[in-house]
Amino acid sequence: MNPTREKQMRALVLEDFGGALRLGEIDTPVAGPGQVLVKVAASGVNPLDTKIRAGKAAHARSRLPAVLGLDLAGSVEQVGPGVDGFAPGDEVYGLTGGVGDLQGSLAEYAAVDARLLARKPASLSMREAAALPLVTITAWEGLVDRAGVRAGHRVLVHGGAGGIGHVAVQIARARGAEVWATGSPGRLRTIADLGAVPIDYTASTVEEYVAAHTGGEGFDIVFDTVGGRTLDDSFAAARTYTGHVLSALGWGSHSLAPLSFRGATYSGVFTLLPMLTGHGRAHHGEIMAEAAALADAGQLRPILDPRHFGLTTVAEAHRLVETGGAVGKVVVEID
Fold first, then answer.
1. Which segments of the chain have a pLDDT < 70?
2. Cα angle, residue 168 at apex, residues 162 and 169 outer, rounded to 5°
């Protein structure tokens, strides 16, 4: 295929926040300088996708009309000028669009910044690979980039069976840390299967599980993937002096006193920043390459919801994510 602006592709277009995604035909993009044209095989669905559609994610800076879809897995169709390292036929994945003015992955093709891509893990299907980008980059930027997770660290992941959480558990373990994770009673088995020590947050207070699992010292790294009151609990669970709290959902107002009294530190993670600003995009591609290596080494695997969705059933996929009914990551298969 040698697409031109005259050729059309199927895509889901959002014309009004809060409205339905309309399936229609739009111009097929062409790979420009520094870009790769990807034939999209699968698009991961994240809570952020549903919030953008509803008009409840101003931080995503989406401009309408828009094609949504943050996560992408597919194959290279065309390589633009100035791109090295990719060739037609390569299977790739990445966090590539669906925010700002970047076209998302709920379309047959997407022209994306090559720096955001990496080769898809050979051991994962397109569907599995599409489940990883947003949650993996978020977990990596927190645990590795901000906190330097390593062997000897005691790590607590809040929401350890969730989208970000189940990947964070695996990354921390792959880097040698000992990991605990909170969850509801129905998710404790999943957490244990991931190799973390499960903590039922409904059955014990922060003080109780900090005492039980760390002798009252606190955790070296606490990763909040839930937000709200859980971030306050994270401050209370950090180790004195050297504890590091991370959050991907640091909205709202929180008292820093519990953290300050421990002399501990806090880092926020805003995964969309390189996509919105253009700065730091190469690092996203590097993280995806590192994640592929972990996956092919058997140390990283997404938990997928077993239900299958296509372009005509994306509304059902979004509804499943919005209602909290998914058991694992939801993925839309484009072809």
1. 1-6
2. 90
pTM higher than 0.85: yes
**Which residues does residue 156 pair with via DSSP β-bridges, in sequence order?**
180, 222
330 closest CA partner among 81, 134, 114: 134
Share of the chain above pLDDT 70, in %: 98
Amino acid at 263: G
Residue listed under structure tokens 């909170």: 182
Residue type, 207: E
> In the chain, what is the straight-line distance between the N-terminal and C-terminal CA atoms, in Å?
16
* Contact status, residue 164 vs residue 329, Cβ threshold 8 Å: no
CA pair distance 313, 332, nearest whole angstrom = 8
Strand ranges inside 108-172, DSSP E: 109-113, 117-119, 154-158
C-beta atoms surrounding 170 within 10 Å: 24
Give residue 243's identity as a one-letter amino acid code. G
Please name the residues in contact with 278: beta carbons below 8 A apart, sequence gap of 6 or more: none
Q: Parallel, antiparallel, or unpaired for β 178-183 and 197-200?
A: parallel
Count of positions (residues) in the chain: 335
**Tokens 């009151």, located at residue:** 229
Q: Is the peptide bond prior to 88 cis by the omega test (within 30 degrees of 0)?
A: no
